Amino acid sequence: MASSKPGKLTDSLKVTGTLVAIFWIVEIVDALLFRGRLDMFGIRPRRLDGLMGIVLAPFLHGGFYHLIANTMPFLILGTLIHWRRPKDYVPVTVLSALIGGLGAWLLGAPGSVHVGVSGVIFGYFGFLVARAYFERSFASILLAVLVIFLYGGIIWGVRPFQTGISWQGHLFGLLGGVFAASLYRKR
Fold first, then answer.
1. Radius of gyration of the chain measured on its C-alpha atoms
2. Whole-angstrom distance, CA of residue 166 vs CA of residue 183
3. How far is CA 6 from CA 73, 99, 116, 140, 177, in A?
4. CA atoms within 13 A on the CB side of 65
């Protein structure tokens, strides 16, 4: 596909900033009114009632430390995607959330609950890096190098069997981002 004109950085920050504000509002309400019990609506592996968690999990976090850890990567990587090509933002976000969530639902440990937006963050990372491979433009390669420099260490989050970490959501979120990038490759 032909590259479209980049969006305004302020517009991109508004879009991702609005989502971050929603994450924070949900976590504050969860902490103050529900004492963390909203997390039970996260992804519950291989349970039919856990499928709704695929949609809800990105808005739920296992406490403020978890949310703080996810805030800046989501804001920065999401803003980069929206700024570079605004029309990519929603499909990349949705594919990363759905594929990441489905991976956690299929492969997560029985009795576990998966929450957080990190699967989407891994999807953003995968999209920005894979886009450089598929698009092969100077701008996409430069952006991928920057993303790897800033966030390349997150790749360790896809290692299997880490206690308390949804490596399944991370791995499949990353694959969702790569898949999204493959959809935009030049014909």
1. 16
2. 26
3. 20, 26, 29, 12, 19
4. 0
In this structure, the chain runs to a length of 187
Greatest C-alpha distance within the chain: 51
**What residue ranges in 130-170 does DSSP mark as E strands?**
none
Q: Name the architecture of domain 9-183.
A: Up-down Bundle (1.20)
Q: How far is CA 156 from CA 53, 57, 119, 180, in A?
A: 24, 21, 13, 21
Tell me the domain boundaries of the chain.
9-183
Query: What pairs with residue 43 in β-bridges?
Result: 114
pTM assigned to the model: 0.94
Q: pLDDT tens across 39-75, in order?
A: 999 999 999 999 999 999 999 999 999 999 999 999 9
Assess contact for 131 and 147: CB atoms under 8 A: no
